[in-house]
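One-letter codes give the sequence; the fold follows as tokens. An example follows:
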Amino acid sequence: MQTVYAFKGGESGAFDKEQKFLLQSLDKTYNLYLLMLSLLIEVQKKAQDHLNKSMQKHLATEADKNPNRKLVNNEVLQLLMASEPLQEALEDYKITHWHFDDEYVDIVFKELLASPLYADYMKTRVSDFKEDKLFLIDLYRDIIAPNEKLYDYLEDTHMTWVDDLPLVNTAILKLLRKVKPNAPSRFFTPELYKDDDDKDFAVSLFRKTILNQTAFKKIVEDRTKNWDSDRIADIDYVLLIMAICEINKFPSIPVKVTINEYLEIAKEYSTPKSSIFINGILDKLVKELQESDTLNKTGRGLM
């Protein structure tokens, strides 16, 4: 959507630059995934440093000398730190942000220390894998994911990361919920794309939308004759021509999947009434295609 929205050329022009930006933006999503996952490792390191400093106090208490190491020894954090593929990926993708911007790790760690979550977790000195996992899930969901200062930092660091953050947060939480004590070393480094078709779809949707934008815009205009064009949000136009592209050019994608997907995007990025408007246009178009027997869908249940 962002790439189509930013495209200013015509159907006959070259758009290699925009396609390259699209693929780079998708790759940057993986950078963000690694960055956010590495934040958990940095929190563990901060906890270890915190214990070390407490033990070295000039007037250390008995609690300082014999600290509760439950967080430092968290089994899921230990899995993360021991994952060689993850460490290699962090190095390959040059994920060194927290080394230079350590204050954001401090922000997360201090918020954790002040939380009821931490107080409850540290009531005992030992735990099992399940408790460690549930604690880490809560830490990520309740403290890291909604942190506004982290959000601002990511927005300043890369222009598309704020839009990618919900996807990345969801992916990390899913992984944390699924992790087991015997998880393979590559568990925390899943592939960005499910398969080659997954990557090809992104490029194909972009190219087919651009190459047919005049025809798709005409479809929208023919069904909005009673609308002042200035009243239709630019984002709505983009979402409509992309949805029309999927309906017309991608036979294997069910109509309901297409419509539901673009309604959700409209709710997130466009006006409060956009989803109703888009749903009306697409619903009308699909009925017309069905009546004329020109809805190009293959396979069962794709209507």
